[in-house]
Amino acid sequence: MKISPLSLTLLFLSAIQVATLGTLPTATLHAAPPNILFLLSDDHSYPYLSAYSDTNVRTPNLDRLAAEGIKFHRFFTAAPQCVPSRASLMTGRSPVAARMTRFSAPLPIDEITFPELLREQAGYYTGVCGRNFHLDGNARSNPEIGEILQRHSLQTFSKRVDSLNTCGDSEVANQVRKFVDQVPAGKPFFLWANFSDPHHPWNAAEKFRPDPNTLKLPPQWPDLPGVRNQFADYCAEINRLDQTVAGVIAILEERKLLDNTLLIFCGDNGMAFPHGKGSLYDPGSNVPFFIRWPGQISANRETSALISAEDLAPTLLEAAGLKPHQRMSGKSFLPLLKGETFEARKHIFVERGPHGSAPVTVNMSNSGYDLSRAVRSDRYKFIYNCTPWIPYSPVDSAAGPAWKQIQAAHQAGSLEESLGKTYFSLPRPVYELYDLQTDPAELRNLSGQPEVAKVEAELREALAEKMILDFDYLPIPAMLTK
Asked: Does residue 25 register a pLDDT over 50?
């Protein structure tokens, strides 16, 4: 049979095309969804990793991972408390919208988590391990509560993932090993590994503890011996966490999984110190956050874009080739990860509700119960306090020497005036406004000042819009004329 010159040319070009395609990486032809490992520390404020040039801690293992990806300077959890913060990370919604502002609440069964979508729509094998993940309700508070949760089938996480194992930090690496070894062949995996450090109690070995006299204290704390000693205890927990994470990474390297895994490291909320955990100031919700994804994210990158915890779920879903659930209010920042055009948020929002299982008492402090909301822009923060008559007290550390010495200094009249106003004003102000450029420690309340009236009006309106869209149960803040 005679073949025409045109047919020969087409056959030749087709052969070249096939040969060329055969040399392309598989990801170019059919991008496989990545394995995803989500590492979550507990009560961990920004900037306490040495990757952020903080000299108080030593975290070489976490620093290495951060350097191999992109680190975020302004990632904010949706609440300064464990339970509502984790609810937002898992659902891509605010804790208010997800009905998770009460600390002891179980995640409602009709709230969809992104691991469920990964499993159902992309074939992922999914799991949770490590410290209590906090989203099945607080059955530990008393037997009666546990019985109620069981009676109404409210503990749902064993059905939301394929593998669920809680354990102490020393066992996390073993749990990771067991999990990756049981992932079915051909399936990508998602694993959420939770750590207790640097949560109370602060009991890391002396070898992890820095010299208290060498520590650099932030301006929102007075320089007192008890403050320095407790801060050293806290830094020791972070140094120990770094070693624990090294054990997890070693498992991935042994199994040759590290280079095809999208790895996220994040704090669940801020440190249990004054101005931190439980408060709406930046140290309560601004946490260390970085992502490493070989082949997709260039190394040694960093960003100061405002990112909310609500944004994590839609980002990871999009990275796996899925669309965010229609109920998610978060915004995917995958384009930012890949170095593409990205429109950053103008505002992030943080809420505060009850904490733990603290009962209501006549003389209670706001460490156990508080109702407040905040909105933050690049430069300013507006805080709305709905229970201003309740006195301030730091969450989890009120009985420690740091807070006791701060109280004693206030009673003796030796505490700096700005710190006295911040911690001991009663009633507390209903409205607070801070210029984070000139006052990053959030110590000078500008609410009501005419020179910032336009800014305050805009932030009040932004917060009101968020509260309306989330069907918030608190009254809307008063609007100001712009």
From this structure: no
